[in-house]
Queue: 2 jobs
Job 1
Amino acid sequence: MTKITAKSSLIVFCMIILIFSSSCTRRKQIAVSSGDEYASRAALKIMKQGGTVVDAFITANLILTITEPGASGIGGGFLAVYYDAKKSQFFSIDARETQASRHQDFAKLKPELNSENWADSKAAIGIPGEAAGMDLLHQEFGTMKLEDLIDPAIEIAEEGFVASDYFVKAHKKFNMPIQAKAGDRIISEDYAKTLELLKENGLMSFYDGEIAEAIENYSEGWINREDLSLYRAFFRRPLKFSWKNSQNQKYYFLSVGLPSAGPLIIKQFLRGFNSAEYSKSLTEQVKEYRKAIGPALEWRHEHAADPDFRKQDCKPDPVFRDRGTSHISLYDSYGNILSATMTIQRPFGHQKKLPGYGFYLNNELTDFSSDLLACNSFADHKIQRLSAKYRTNNEEVAYMVEDFKRPLSSMSPMIIFGPDSEFLVTGGTGGWTIFSSVLETSLEIVEKKKDPQSAIDDVRFYTANNRDIYYDGDLSEAELKELETNLSSESVSLKKFPVPAAVNILHFKDKELNAYKDSRKGGFAIKDTML
Ligand code: GLY
C-alpha cells in the first residue's frame, strides 16, 4: 500500500537535497530539457558561461517567445519551483496572468459572449506575468547581467532561426499566418525591438513604458496602464509532500500550490491509489487511475481557485482541450534546480501579436470558465443565466472573477527526490492533461522503474471527469480489447485522443544526470559536464 505524509519537514527536505546536490555537483553536470532546440542550446550555453538555472531560464524563455510562439512567450505567464543550492531552500514563483480592473464590464459583453467567441475577445487577455516573474527571479537569484541574458534572444530575432517541421505544423494546425516552409529562416524584427527596449530599460519596463501603452491601446482599455503598473510576480509557499512506492521507497515532491490545482491533484491522487495494483496490468493501471483521480478532480472542482480571493464553492468544469503551454527543466553546475511551466493559454493565446512588438498576447482569462455553472465563472454572465436556485444563494457568487484575480491553472512544475540520490526535474504541457502526464510519467519512473524515455513515450491516460477516459499513444488490439472488456462494467468510455502534452524531464540516478525530451511537441534535451 502507498502512504502519503501530509506533514513534511523542511529540515528533512533540505538535508536530503544537500546530499543530492553535492553528489551531482561533484562532476558539475548540467542539463536542460525544453520544447525547442534553440532555447535548450542557449540555456546550456549560459550555464556553461557560469550562469545559474535562473539566468539560463531567462534566455531560454525570451527565445521560446519566437521559436515556440504557440506555447508560451512574454505575452503570457508562468509558474515555477526553484531550489537554491546556496540557501538550501525551495521557492515557488507565481507569475500567472491576472484579470485587470474591468471585470464588471463583462456585463456589457453578455449578449455576444459565448464559450467560442470569448476565446478571441480582447477582454480575455490577462495582464502578462512573464517579464515580472523573470525580473523577480533575476533580482533574487540571477548572477549574470540582464543584457547578457537578453542578447542571445536578440541575435536569434535579428539573424533568424530555422523553422522546424513542428513550428510550421503548429502554425498550420491552428490557422496561424505563416509563409515559411520547414527549413526557412524566420526573422523577427518587431520582437528584436521589444527585446532592445527591455535590455535598455529593464524587464519591469514592460509594465510602464511604451509596451504598456501599446497593450492598453490594443486591448481597448481592457487592460489599462494602471493595471499593468500594479502587476507583481511573487514567491508563494512551495507545495511539499512525500509518498512511498510499493517497494517502501520514500519520495519527496516539491511543487507549486494554488492558483495551480495540478500538483494538488497529484498529491490527492497519491493519497488514494494502490501502487502495487497500479503496476500489475494495464487494466489495473486504468482502474487505479480512475479510483484515485475521481476524488482529486472533485476536490478541484469544488474548492480550487486563486488563494488570495474569497472562499471557492464551485460546480464541475469538464473542459478538455489542447493548450498553449511549454515546460523547461534545468540543472546547473552549482546544484540549483528550476522547473518552470509557461503558458499563453490557447495555442498562440489571443492568436494576434501585439502590433509592432512581435509577440503573441495570452487569452489566459478563459481559464476562468465561461461555462454556465462552471467553477471560476463570470459573475454577471452567470447570474443572469443561472436558475433561481443558484441566484438566491449568495454563496454562489463567491467564486466569480474579481479584479486582479488569477485564473486556476493545471501547470505542475515539479522536483521529486528519491532514495540513493535519485531525483527528477519534471513538468509538462497540455492544459487539463498536464497533471496526468506529469503524474503518469513520474510513476513509470519511480514506481515501475522504467527508463525516463520509455516513460515519456509510453501511452498515457487522461480524464477531466472520470467517465470519459482518453488515451494518447498506441495501444495494441489485444490491449484495447483487454481494457474494453474489463472496464465495460464501470460505464467508462475509452477514446483515443492524441494531445500534444509534452513532458520535459531531467533524471539523476547512479551518479548520472540525463535529459529527456518529448517528441509529441518538438522538444530538445541536452546535457554537458563542466570542469
Ligand atoms: N493555461 C494552462 C494552465 O494554466 O493550466
Job 2
Amino acid sequence: MKRILITGALGQIGSELASFLRKRYGNENVIASDIKHVPDEIINQVGVFEHIDCLDAQEICSVINKYKIDTVFHLAAVLSASGEKNPQLAWKVNINGLYNVLEIAREYKCAVFTPSSIAAFGPSTPKDKTPQETVQRPNTIYGLTKVTGELLCDYYYSKYGVDTRGVRFPGIISNVALPGGGTTDYAVEIFYEALKNKKYTCFLNKDTYLDMMYMPDALKAALNLMETDPSRLKHRNAYNVTAESFNPEQLAREIKKYIPDFEMNYDIDPMRQAIADSWPNRLDDSAARKEWGWSPDYNLEAMTKDMIEKLEVKLHVSV
Ligand code: SER
C-alpha cells in the first residue's frame, strides 16, 4: 500500500481510519472521501479530502487517477437499521457503490478492503461459535448486501485477480464519530448518556448477546489483513473477527463500576430487536487468527475503562 483512498471517511470507522493510516503511510498518501461535505469545525483535522459519491463511477475514477491510488478502503455503506427504513437505497449504495469500486479497481489494479458484518448471518446460522463457513441466509437488506458483497469480492479476485480482502466486523464501539443507523449503536450511545445524564434507555433487550469490538482493534484488523502476505490468505472475503461478546445488562454493570448511580432502562424497538435476534451471539474467528495473526487487545473491561477516560475528556465531565 502506498497510496490509499478511503470512501465513507466521515463515518464512524472512516473518521479514525484516516488518521491511523496517515501515521503509518504519511499524510499525503491517504486520501479521505465522503458523499458528505466536511463540516467547517473539523476541516483542519481531515487532511487531504475529496468529495466522492460512490454511485458516480466517474467521481471515483478521477480521484484514483489524480492521486495514483493503489489501495481502496471502501467503507461507504448504509447500515442495518437505516437499511430497513429504506431498503432500495441500501441496495443501491451497498451494491452499486461496491460494484463501481471493484470495476475501477480492476482497471487500475487497486487492492480493495471491504468490511462485511455479523449481519451477513441470519436466523438459520449457528448462533454460538459461528463458523467461518456456515449457513448465510440473512433476513435484512443490509445482510443481503453484505453476503452479495462478499461473493462479489471473491469473484473479482478469482476472475480478475483483484486483491480483495475483508472482515466481518461486529458492532464497533468508539468515541470520535458516532455510528449511524446500526443495531449495535446502543453500545456507543450508552457511554455518552451515562457520562452526561447517568441514565440510558436501551432499545435492545437486556439479554441480547452480540459480538463487539473497540475501535483500536477494528483499525488493527483492517491494517493487518491488508498488510498480510497474500499467499497466507485462504478465505479473503470475509474473515470472522470478534473481540468480545456481551449483552446490554453486562455492559451496564461494567459502566456502573465507574458511575455507581448509572441507571439503565429498557424500551425495546421491535425492528432493531428482530435484527439483533437474527445475528450470532459470538463468532468463531480462528481462521483470521490462523491466516493473518488476528488477536484483539481490548475486552469488555479494558474497552469500558478506555471509553470512559476518553469521553470524560471529550465531554468535559468527570466521574
Ligand atoms: N454495526 C452494524 C449495524 O449494527 C453491524 O455491521 O448495522
